[in-house]
Specification:
Elements (H helix, E strand, L loop, with lengths): L9 E7 L4 E10 L4 E6 L1 H6 L15 E3 L4 H4 L10 H8 L8 H5 L10 E6 L6 H10 L4 H7 L4 H8 L6 H12 L1 H11 L5 H18 L1
Antiparallel strand pairs: 1-2, 1-5, 2-3, 3-4
Helix pairs in contact: 5-8, 8-9, 9-10
């Protein structure tokens, strides 16, 4: 079997039942070590639910293998299956696709068990994108932190690479990509920002909104 190309950073495994869905764990591939790594989610372990497979018993340790774990391999249909082309067509992938992570999260996504495989994609929103967004709005770090309800200390730490600010970056990415949302959030928090600066930011965001329409 071929190895992951990096288009999908990881495979997230969920246990989906009739009225609930829980994160089971995450499968990654480390190209330097040429090894697959699977680790259960801590909350899933606390619930003491069913293991993903016999070779992956419940536990806190990281499971490492040079080959894709059998519990994942079993979910990818055989190319010899007469319906294989139809499976690929239904998921919109090439019949010659070889990336196991792509195969797992498309034609192998659902199977006879209650485990579901979803792709985890890398965010393309970077620190530079954050700085660009703030500078486009012509806001200082203090003004930006007020307008978008984060601490200035956190914002400066992210911009200087001192912290990843993962959860904060997810929220700020939404504001950067959706100006209507950014305008709503800014107007909700901007009372202590000078009225001329407020007006300027509102004009900039309004122009962005109009471009999208």
């Amino acid at each position: 079997m071929n190895y992951p190309t990096g288009k999908i950073s990881a495979v997230l495994v969920y246990l989906e039942r009739r009225k609930s869905r829980k994160l089971v764990g995450e499968l990654t591939y480390h190209s330097k070590e040429e090894a697959y790594v699977f680790q259960y989610d801590k909350n899933y372990l606390r619930l003491k639910l069913i293991p993903l497979g016999p070779e992956l018993p419940l536990g806190r340790k990281k499971f490492i293998s040079k080959k894709l774990f059998e519990s994942f391999v079993d979910r990818i249909p055989s190319r010899e299956n007469p319906a294989y082309k139809d499976y690929c067509a239904a998921e919109g992938i090439d019949v010659n696709e070889a990336d196991p992570f792509i195969l797992l999260t498309t034609i192998g996504k659902r199977g006879p068990s209650s485990f579901i495989f979803e792709s985890k994609r890398q965010s393309t929103f970077s620190v530079e994108d954050l700085k660009k967004f703030r500078q486009e709005l012509q806001l200082t770090t203090k003004e930006f932190s007020i307008g978008f309800s984060i601490t200035e200390k956190t914002l400066i730490s992210i911009e200087h690479g001192q912290t990843s600010g993962k959860d904060t970056m997810k929220r700020l990415e939404l504001y950067a990509r959706f100006p209507a949302l950014a305008l709503f959030e800014f107007q909700r928090n901007c009372a202590s920002i000078h009225r001329e600066k407020r007006r300027l930011v509102e004009q900039i965001l309004s122009r962005k909104i109009n471009k999208e329409e």
